[in-house]
TrEMBL record:
GO function terms (MF aspect): L-malate dehydrogenase (NAD+) activity
Domain annotation Lactate/malate dehydrogenase N-terminal: ranges: 2-146
Organism for this UniProt entry: Penicillium salamii
Class of the enzyme per the UniProt entry, highest EC level: oxidoreductase
Keywords for this protein: NAD, Oxidoreductase, Tricarboxylic acid cycle
Residue ranges of domain Lactate/malate dehydrogenase C-terminal in the record: 148-339
Substrates-to-products reaction catalysed: (S)-malate + NAD(+) = oxaloacetate + NADH + H(+)
Protein known as: malate dehydrogenase
Amino acid sequence: MVKISLIGAAGQIGTPLSLLCKTSDIFDEISLYDIVHVPGIATDLMHIDTRAKVSGYLPDDGGLKKALTGANIVVVTAGIARKPGMTRDDLFKTNAGIIRDIFVQVAETCPDAIACVVTNPVNSTVPVAAETLRKAGVFEPTRLFGVTTLDVVRASTFAAHALGGKADPKHYKVPVIGGHSGATILPLYSQAEPAIDLSDEQLAPVINREFPGGLSQDHMLKTRLGVQFGGDEIVKSKQGAGSATTCMAYAGFRFVKALVAAQNGQSVSEEAYVYLPGVPGGQEIAAQLGVDYFAVKVEIGKNGASKALPIGNLSVSEEKLLEVALSDLKTNISTGVSFMRA
Ligand code: LMR
């Protein structure tokens, strides 16, 4: 019996994610929670011929608690999205309180569930979630993930675009470590499998092209902003209508599918943003890097992260990018932790 709770399900990520969950046929129960619309979305999804029973809960009458009751997996996409000119950090003021309130209820209702945070800024909202669970005395780091899968998806996709021709993005596996915003996103092309035949000069725009604020929409759509600023490309292109939704739902679902596969006994690994000191193998990485929260490849088992894998050997240019990533990440982490400790 697998139940997933999607918190923020009426949003532009939550709704396509709920569709992917329902059509996948890997769930017995899907509960949706949001401040509007979810009873209707649930009814709509219930006309799809897969076995999952879908229910939708609004805030009145303890709706969040009802949505979370019995959940094995919780995915939080609730919160506001970026508009042009905003960074993910600009969302913290609003989204931090939303995450705290949701995790107060997670702690009370389903402390053993595996919780996945999509809500930005992930680098800071995951520490908020962790500190909320810790305050309630139920923090189990192996069961809390910041979802960074979209960076992994972009890393292989953008490299395949740069290779041109018939390169299939799915053919390449590129580890992406660090965090989920700007320079904290560090794709490790030196560890790509199979090797990607691009020079450092060709890889530079795939990883990070300076954000060309002055370029025309037409040019923007023809140009990649690189893995580090892929999110900005979508924000700009949507012209005020929000940020990534369908590709984020796709990536979130890929992560959730891995969790379910692990619960069914398969051996799986994915990159995710975790609290390193609490995950087996993570303490060494935390000591090496000097940060507690970091996205690394994790082996996933029935109870969440079973092992954080070492970051491996980096190229000289990746070492430089890591330094920048760590410096930004330290600020982001302390923003989240201080919010809860204030
Ligand atoms: C993304 O990477 O596309 C998302 O984190 C949304 C955003 O604000 O960029």
